[in-house]
Amino acid sequence: MTVLSLDSVRLTYPDGDRRLTALDAVSLEVAAGELLAVAGPSGSGKSSLLAVAATLLRPDSGQVVVAGRDTARLSDKERTALRREHIGIVFQQSNLLGSLTALEQLLVVEHLRGGSVRAARERAGALLDSVGLDAAKRARRPHQLSGGERQRVNIARALFGRPAVLLVDEPTSALDHERGARIVDLLARVTAEHATATVMVTHDRALMARADRLLDMTDGRLAAVPTPAVRS
Ligand SMILES: Nc1ncnc2c1ncn2[C@@H]1O[C@H](COP(=O)(O)OP(=O)(O)OP(=O)(O)O)[C@@H](O)[C@H]1O
User: Fold this and answer.
1) Which of 163, 179, 200, 218 is deepest in the core (most CB within 10 A)?
2) Taking every annotated instance into account, which residue ranges of this chain make up the domain ABC transporter (predicted)?
């Protein structure tokens, strides 16, 4: 079942008196339970792809369908609700709230959804544990954590909402090999167990090797990469 689809998406940015084409006729379908990796050179459009899929940027043309909803037809309010309900986002810039502890970063997701924060505590703790944050670290605020620890809180928070679509930009960039491998395991497990449609941008070959499918982005265009070339 396709959970995320992009059809002939074009995105441009202003560039002096011209427009720079960041995404050029990009089409993509990601199924429930599929882990898709997107690689490609710097500036090729990978982050733009995630931003459009996250409904944070509107494409100039083309269609973006998330969990059966054509996002072009939604109001800003409906798009925010769609994001909160169905999309987990882990971008490079940490957008953790400075005044909240690691545990509270997750609980606020439940609060925004109108769920029971008390009931969510245990699951939030277990999820932070699974990304390697012990009880003491879970009680710390972002400025008391390392960059890699903040990245892991980000990942746990995105997973906490059990999103249908998970969008991850360079999930292991701030982590050492062993921690990176644990995050990869977690992403692969969550994708399979919760039937999440996961798209991750990565330069990490170990991560690419774990993906079900690898796509290459060059100059705003997406192309399939034969998997054996990645695994060699
Ligand atoms: N807000 C913006 N305004 C203008 N141009 C932008 C903007 N954001 C990105 N670009 C340009 O769009 C192109 C695609 O950028 P994007 O960030 O999507 O690439 P990327 O593949 O994610 O790069 P990297 O691997 O370096 O993060 C680049 O040429 C970039 O300079």
Assistant:
1) 200
2) 4-232
Instruction: Say how many residues make up the chain.
Output: 232
Residue found by looking up tokens 């309900």 in the block: 85
Nearest CA to ligand 1 atom 30: 43
Report ipTM for this prediction.
Answer: 0.96
Q: Which of 10, 26, 44, 199 to mutate to test the pocket of ligand 1 (most atoms within 8 A of CB)?
A: 44
**Number of separate helices (H) and strands (E) present in the chain:** 9, 10
Q: List ligand 1's pocket residues with C-beta within 6 A.
A: 13, 20, 22, 40, 42-48
Domain ranges, ordered by start, for the chain: 2-231
Largest separation between any pair of C-alpha atoms in the chain: 54
**pTM attached to this predicted model:** 0.90
Q: Top-level CATH class of 2-231?
A: alpha beta
Distance of CA 85 to the CA centre of its chain: 14
CA distance 80 to 72: 13
Rg (CA), the chain: 17
**Spacing, Cα 13 to ligand 1 middle (Å):** 9
Looking from the CA of residue 201, the nearest atom of ligand 1 is 22
